[in-house]
Amino acid sequence: MTLKPIIKLMNPNEFITLTNPIRDKVFRLAKRMLESHEESEDALQEVMLKLWAMRDRLTAYKSIEALSMTVTKNYCLDHLRSRKSPYFTIVYDDFAHQTPVYQKDNDGEDKMKFVGRIVATQLSEKQKLVLQMRDVEQYELGTIAEILEMTEVTVRVTLARARNIIKENMIKSYHYGEA
Q: Has residue 152 got a pLDDT over 60?
């Protein structure tokens, strides 16, 4: 007679303890991709439900955070496809009526708005995601590569190109009007 191994199911408190640290990151990624606060909350709930359904296998993954970000990315892409959106864009309403020229005497907040405008208008969606995951969420390159299903080299190149676009636009507008 062979004994089957006993699989201990995770209880709700253990699941909450495990997933609470990643909820904000899941929400931010969903918000970045879906634009809508309500749709992002729905995405967060769907991801948590999917993780709950997988709770007996979660310990097999080396990074629950990377798994949750991958599930979030895939859910958002599926959701966008179901809306029949040929591509998705991020809307920055507060950048719509501002002049593109950076003024040297502006404070740090204006610089951040200017950089945000560059990100919104000049970067590809892949560059935006990589930049967000690296510079905002502070993910390692390997984790970003795993989540976005890219190689680390591709992530590094994408990140470098995104930063270069921002840098070139800053330099160009900083010297605007100078002879």
A: yes
On the question of pLDDT at 117 being above 80, the answer is: no
- In total, the chain counts a number of residues equal to 179
- Within 8 A by CB and 6+ apart from 110, the residues are 102, 103
User: Is the pLDDT assigned to residue 89 strictly greater than 80?
Assistant: no
Q: pLDDT, tens digit, for every residue of 133-144?
A: 898 888 899 999
Per the listing, tokens 């909450």 go with: 16
CB 69 within 8 A of CB 29: yes
Distance from C-alpha of 141 to C-alpha of 152, rounded to nearest angstrom = 6
User: How many whole angstroms separate alpha carbon 146 and alpha carbon 92?
Assistant: 28
Q: Apex CA 127: angle with CA 136 and CA 66, to 5°?
A: 55
CA pair distance 156, 128, nearest whole angstrom: 13
Distances (CA, A) of 89 to 30, 86, 111, 159, 166: 13, 10, 22, 18, 18
Kindly state the average pLDDT of the residues 138-163: 92
Q: What structural domains does the chain harbor?
A: 9-88 (1.10.1740), 92-179 (1.10.10.10)
Q: How many alpha carbons fall within 13 Å on the CB side of residue 36?
A: 9
Are 160 and 112 a contacting pair, CB within 8 Å?
Answer: no
Kindly report the average pLDDT of the chain as a whole number. 79
